[in-house]
Model the fold of this input.
Amino acid sequence: MNKLNIAWLIKMAWRDSRRNRSRLFLFISSIVLGIAALVAIFSFGYNLRRDIDQQAMELIGADLVISSNRPVSAEVQPLLDSLGDRRSQERSFASMILFPKNEGSRLVQIRALEGEFPYYGALETTPQSAGVTFRNGRQALVDKTLMLQFNAQIGDSVKVGEVTFEIAGILNKAPGQSGISATVAPAVYIPLQFLEQTGLEQKGSRIMYLYYYKYDAPVDTKKLVEKLEPRLEKELLNAETIESEREDLGRSFEDLTGFLALVGFIALLLGSIGVASAIHVYIKEKLSSIAILRCLGVSGRQAFLIFLIQIVGIGFLGSVIGAVLGTAVQQLLPRVLQDLLPVEITMGISWLAVMQGIGLGVVISLLFALLPLISIRNISPLNTLRLSFEETSLFKDPLKWGVYGLILLFIFGFTYLQTEKLKEAAYFTLGVLVAFLVLVGIAAGLVWLVRRYFPSSWSYLWRQGLANLFRPNNQTLILIVSIGLGTAFICTLYFVQTILLNHVTLSASENQPNMVLFDIQNGQREAVANLVKNQGLPVLQQVPIITVRVEEINGLTAAEVKKDSTLGISVRAFQRELRVTFRDSLTDSEKIAEGAWVGKVNTSDETIKVSLEEGYAERIKVKVGDKMVFNVQGALIPTEVGSLRKVDWNRIQTNFRVIFPEGVLEEAPQFHVLITRVPDAQASAQLQRAVVRQFPNISIVDLELILDILDELLDKIGFVIRFMAAFSIITGLVVLISSVLISKYQRIQESVLLRTLGANRRQIFMITALEYFFLGALASGTGIVISLAGSWALAKFSFETKFTPELLPVLVVFLLISALTVAIGLMNIRGVVNKSPLEVLRSDV
Amino acid sequence: MTTILNVQNLTKTYQGSGNTLTVLDNVSFAIEAGATVAIVGPSGSGKTTLLGLCAGLDRSSAGVVELNGIRLDDLDEDARAQVRNQHVGFIFQNFQLLPTLTALENVMVPLELRGERNIKPQALDLLDKVGLAGRAHHYPAQLSGGEQQRVSLARAFSNKPKILFADEPTGNLDAETSEKVVKLIFDLNQDAGTTLVLVTHDNELASKTQRILRVKGGKLVSDEWLNQSLEQNELF
Done:
């Protein structure tokens, strides 16, 4: 047979699979869940993208939105008034509100609205008409979470600044608002005409100015924005269109789905390792059949192709099952993720996702199966005569390295497609490789150690159980790698969540400030401090804050920097507003990293030496001695970078990127921040009430509330991650079960032989239990050590916090996985010990 | 008569840990087409190695093997596989049937490999000749040892080989079954005019061939012509 007869190869693959199909399916079952996870995520991603595309109009609510974080100048106002056929405007800012009925107060997002906005979609309110009618009188729409929290009813009053509004309706949903954003900053809509009377629109307040436009006839807003851009940029105005909203939102959710796809991909990788191990055992068992075929004249390539076709076929079948399961699972994802989503998700079958999942499943099962499959080429026909002195080398084939390379390339490629970041894709691939190598190293080391220091004095059962770890056909490597990787993954997820929560709760621990009052005007400074003190609370910090912008860096303006990209300075450095302070000394959360601290300017002609936070200085490419000009509300102030500071941002206190020395900004428009610590919720509520009553413009951030929200947020995100991680965990179990079941075919003969020689049930059980306990304990122990190391590195380098793992849950995971491994191993051997040896020997095992 | 198998100075060594093991040492002989030859010798004498090299299942360390005029030592494994498919039939001690194929499919494989069509009647006919027409659709696990060896025989003759190599063909069978299988081997061999080379330590079986090559310690120690005619097979 000179040429490859594909039809015959397929026929042979089919024939050969006849008596192995259930086993082949068992092998491939490891990838089913991984594919299901990915198809679910991909489908969800595509459906989300489609929904964002379709609902982008409702999300933005207008054809064009122009926004600014400062009042627009008189020069640009005519331009803003000339755009659109219909116009609305909004001022949005954080402020306290007060419910007079029960004296409840809370920081909210005030949205002062004028006009018919939204032009697309609606403010969803109860009653429905309130979304329109509140604009006509002194009425407000209050977010449903606030209504619930303060037990408020429609018709009650709510005080915003100096003005009391009647609650016209409950705000259920506003354009572009997701469940989470409503929790973090619940919205209260008021008519814009009453904003001035509230007294909240003061200099230094952080107000966002929004202008909404609707065109009656279709207009190419993209072109329009391109035309307006130079003027908008000059005035630091930002423009959004339906198209840009679609892209921005799409991009951020691509990041989310990309991340979730990576979590699913880990499940698939884990399953693939299971496939590789199962196929390895399968091919070993097929050695004799392959040798016979080679005797009859089948070439190495043909023999390889026969089994390759089998694997592709079974991989395809497994992937189809995975895709069907994934399509079903995706129906759950919107429920899991709904609080994070700004759009209504419509779930349908995404054929693209299904095709991708099937393709991915076939490719990955093929890639991982290639490792054992390429050994087929080297199986000698001599094996039929059983005189092969030279053992068929399954590992010394140079092609194996090529396959390993392909696998790494595939992992890197897939990760890159999900993240679109080369560095992250490389780190992910490297991480997988390192974890894999560590586990392989540990498995090899264990086998070596057990052999080298074999405890000959132990009882027979212990020796037999231990010897099973290194005897031919052992499952040590694959079980340690699969169980170890699974454990490492589960534990890392758990540790990261604890690190995040600890990180936050640590900040809120005793003696740490937990309440921040901001927007305190110059004239209110003393009075607010006295009010706090009168409540028996400490004034831990009180600092002035001035809003500035960078005008020049080493003589270069924004325009010049934009022209010369080789400078490496981002134009953003000039566009962003900075909140700076002035003082004569460092706080205990700061340290000088470079240069010298200058706390005071004594004469007007003295060089003003500012101090920059080192990370900020690095971002804008500035070093000690460089010149910077700051625009302080119109006045240009030339300075020199005198020092760089290392700042501990984890402390709850005001920290600044730029600090001026005393004697420069004292007369600049400013507001103040006061930080205190309240002992309990009652004291917190009491202070908030008193402040809101006397100083309605002052906003209060209650850290306990933020912690609660963060906790809730982390819980929701954690649930999403746990949901995806569940695929990995179950895959780990499937791999474990299939690995143990595969070893059944190898172990059964010797167990029967032991039975024949007189071993009783207890002894067989004991030997098996010990073997699997050694495997399970070592694998899960190694996985835990890897996750501890990884989590420590994450805590130190990424979260910059301490890592103190809780040992009890770790111990539970260790015992659970070890016990599970033993249980599966014992279940496996049950069939042997419950039957007579003859019965087992006679049956075709 | 033409020479079907020509072996010259054949040597096979294995590199062990630190030492070299010589399994075959400078063996030479030639076999005429249509002859029946037995290779005999005690366990570990190198007879199976010799068979493997003659059949192109392995490569020699030195020397020449020429099968039907083709030098096997010049060929790579895939080319030797093609030679085996075209010219060689095998019978093994442990039958070596493909466990996932039925008896009929096992017989059909060599023909399918040659790309032949309408092979089913031919394979069924062969099974009929070995008395297993009724077991065509049974898997090896459903057949007795003797039946498996008969299927193996049918398979060996399916590609009409020029030479048939048999490695201890009765080693796994009882006396009665052995007798039947040996008769079948010689009958089919005679019908097809095939050269038969069998490895055995059973002197009685060896005595049924025309020539006995004795191997000991990897060397050919005697080449005995029994002067039997093919008709002697009629003894069975």
Notes: The first strand of chain B starts at residue 3 and ends at 15. The CA atoms of residues 36 and 196 of chain B lie 5 Å apart. Residues 3-231 of chain B form a domain with the Rossmann fold fold (CATH 3.40.50.300). The two ends of chain B are 26 Å apart (CA to CA).
